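Re-run with default settings, no changes from the original entry. Doing this only to confirm the output is reproducible before filing.
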Amino acid sequence: MRFIIVLIALLIERFFDWSHLRQWHWYTALQKMVSERLPGKNAYLIVAMTILPLLLLVFIIDYVLSQVLYGVLSVVFELCLLLYCFGPRNLWADAFASATAFSQNDSQLAKEKLYDLFGVTDAGRSAFFIEANRRVFAIVFWFAILGPIGAVLYRALAISSRSTQTDLSHSATYAASILDWIPARIFTFALALGGHFAKVFDCWRKKVGHGFNENDALLVECGAAALGQEDVEPLERRAVSLIDRAFVIMLVFILLVMLLV
């Protein structure tokens, strides 16, 4: 059933932009309140005290709903929660907006748009692959492994990593990088299968065993290798096509794993 939920969620996310419905301000406010209630405490403790009650609540709601109407309400709940944990911004909508900005031949506007959407100004647009992992793939991976708890855990850590409190941000970033380690390597291998396999695999095997801090470097280098050097179409659109192929491969992988378990 999780495969069906993932498939429906990805189709919705791919073709509809509902990112305006994803509001996580309440979580930021909650974490701020916990931080104020525990002044001087370890940042990891604050992150844990914010996230654990949320995970417990999700577990209880999902369990209760699974006992009603043969679990139909639980499926609906998990689908809505997975969609809510994507993003927060829609990856594909931002990618096409970036492509449109670059097609207008206004380099300054394009760089501003790229910074607003992906936090970078590099014309190489390597952040696509980092964001694809953070916004979608890692969420799907942990949902497939841990259910709705996994999706909420990853998104909560990602939100915490952008905290204005330095210690809190660093702690959450490190915790999120631990969760990123496995999905980043699976995603980049999928990029190899969907792009230039020999080039990507050569990069992948050199970095696959590196530590948590190398996740972004792995995604950037493997993504660039997968795109190759062709100039047939804009880089952004090639990146989107590559990411689409990688997600199809990922869906097949999840289906095979679930059939074997």
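The chain has one domain: 2-260. DSSP finds twelve helices and no strands in the chain.
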